[in-house]
Amino acid sequence: MGCEHNNKTCMELVPIFSNLTFEEMMELSRITVDRKYEKGEMIYTAGDSGEKLFVIHRGKVKITRFSISGKEQVIRILEPGDFMGELSLFSHTPRIDNAEALEDTIVCIIGGDEMRELMTKYPTIALKVLEELSCRLGRAENLIEHLGIHDVETRIIETLFAWKDENGEVILGMSKRDWASYIGMSQETLSRKLSYFQDMNWIRMVGHRKIIILDEESLKALV
Q1: Does residue 4 fall inside a structural domain?
Q2: What is the pTM of this model?
Q3: Where is each Cyclic nucleotide-binding domain found (predicted)?
């Protein structure tokens, strides 16, 4: 049976299933199984056979790839309602990325055959999957452009502005090591630049996961 939380099935959290009726959602729930992963546990790794769609019900998952030299590149961070493994629905090739639980995580899983039957039965699901894939492709292209034309300070500042709340505070959803990988630099470079920003009184770092932006104008002047 599909996992439930507060009387909601896992799939009710996912935008690609938002147009299904209650009866259709129950049909989906019956072919869904759940699994718990502890922090640091791998959900799947590159080279694994696919044929499954994974939906995050609770927790966070890091999607990464490794270069030939062994350098890790963070592709994206997934949160409840996000899904992964969708490429295996359209291709029988092994997985090319890795999925790691960043915290204790519950994942709902649908087999590839069952998911393809659903997409045939309910074309809106297939269209929403393709829409999400198009969005991810666009984000990937933007990231490639971003890494190619911006210096390290600009990359750091732009992510700070993208992640800050209305109070100018940033709560990191990933470690600084993963943040550095995501924007294409070493952790040492990221830490050095953040320390410089703090020394200039442009930001204040609080613990390992909180950054308060103190002087937006000075930071913008560097971009």
Answers
A1: no
A2: 0.65
A3: 16-136
